[in-house]
Design a protein that fits this description.
about 280 residues, alpha/beta, Rossmann fold, 8-stranded mixed sheet, 10 helices, about 40% helix
C-alpha cells in the first residue's frame, strides 16, 4: 500500500469506529430509557383525595414491590362491570372525566393506575410484571361480579394488556379501542435503526388475538395518525372469535371519546352484552 494511502485509511477507520461507538451509545440509552419513553404517567401525592358525584371506593391492590391505586364506581343496580385498562399517558385523575357515560348505561366501572402513575407505587420493569399486575387488579374485583357480565376494555397500549387478560379469563366482551398489532411494529416505524431485541415490551397483540374466545369489539378512528385503522383491521383478520369493527369517522387517536358515534356505538354494544 502506498504510504500516502495510510493516513486516509486510518482516518476512515477512525470515523467508522466513532460511528459504531455512537450507535452503541444510542442503543444503550434507548434500552435504558425505554420505560420513560413508553410509560408516560405522572404521580400524584399520596394524600391526594378523589372527589366524584357518584358513589365510588378507592382500592389499593397489592403487587410485589408496590401497589396499584384503583377506583371502583358503583351504580345502584348495575348491568355489569367494565374493567378498564387505560393508555400509556395520563392517570386516574384524567381518565375519569367521562363517568356519566357509565351511569347512563348502568354499568359499574373499575379502573386502575399502572406502577408509577397517580398514587400507584413501585416501578414498571418488564412485560411479565405488567401482565401480572393487570391480573392482580382483575382478581381484586372480578369475584364480586361472578354472576354478572364483565366487559374488559383496553385503550391503546392498554388494549394489548386487555387482550392478554381476556385470553386468560374469557370475559363477556372484549373492547379494544385504538389497538396496535404490536409495540415492536410501532418501534420499527419510530426507531428503524434499533434492533427489535432491544425492546423489553413487544406487547404482541397479533400473536395472541387468535387465542381469545370472547367476542371482540374493535373501535378505531378513521383519522388516527398514531395507530392507523389498518392495525384494528389486521387484528380482526387474525381473530378467531366473533368480531365487530366500529370505525368512527373523523376521529383521531386522542379525541375518539368525544364523538357521538363512539359513545352511542359503545353504549349499544355494552347494553347488548348484558342482555339488553
Amino acid at each position: 500500500m502506498p504510504l500516502f494511502y495510510r493516513p486516509a485509511v486510518a482516518a476512515v477507520m477512525l470515523l467508522v469506529a466513532l460511528a459504531l461507538a455512537a450507535y452503541a451509545i444510542a442503543l444503550g440509552l434507548l434500552y435504558l430509557t425505554q420505560e420513560r419513553l413508553i410509560f408516560r404517567g405522572t404521580p400524584l401525592p399520596s394524600d391526594y383525595r378523589f372527589a366524584f358525584e357518584q358513589r365510588f371506593a378507592e382500592i389499593q391492590v397489592a403487587v410485589p414491590g408496590g401497589s396499584l391505586d384503583a377506583l371502583h364506581f358503583m351504580q345502584p343496580h348495575p348491568r355489569g362491570l367494565v374493567f378498564f385498562i387505560h393508555a400509556t399517558a395520563g392517570k386516574l385523575a384524567t381518565w375519569t372525566t367521562g363517568l356519566d357515560f357509565y351511569r347512563r348505561i348502568n354499568y359499574d366501572l373499575f379502573i386502575f393506575d399502572f406502577r408509577g402513575y397517580g398514587k400507584s407505587t413501585g416501578r414498571i420493569d418488564s412485560e411479565a410484571q405488567l401482565g401480572a399486575d393487570v391480573r392482580a387488579a382483575w382478581d381484586a374485583i372480578a369475584p364480586a361480579y361472578r354472576d354478572q357480565p364483565i366487559v374488559i376494555y383496553g385503550r391503546s397500549l392498554g388494549a394489548a394488556l386487555a387482550a392478554r387478560l381476556a385470553r386468560d379469563v374469557n370475559p363477556r366482551l372484549l373492547v379494544l379501542v385504538t389497538p396496535f398489532t404490536s409495540l415492536a411494529a410501532i418501534g420499527r416505524r419510530e426507531y428503524p435503526f434499533a434492533p427489535e431485541w432491544l425492546l423489553k415490551y413487544p406487547l404482541s397483540t397479533d400473536a395472541l388475538i387468535g387465542d381469545i374466545r370472547s367476542p371482540i369489539l374493535f373501535v378505531h378512528g378513521t383519522n388516527d395518525a398514531l395507530i392507523p385503522l389498518a392495525e384494528s383491521e389486521r387484528l380482526r383478520q387474525l381473530a378467531r372469535a366473533p368480531t365487530e369493527l366500529l370505525a368512527v369517522a373523523g376521529a383521531g387517536h386522542n379525541d375518539i371519546q368525544s364523538f357521538p358515534a363512539y359513545l352511542d356505538g359503545l353504549a349499544t354494544r355494552l347494553i347488548a352484552a348484558a342482555g339488553g
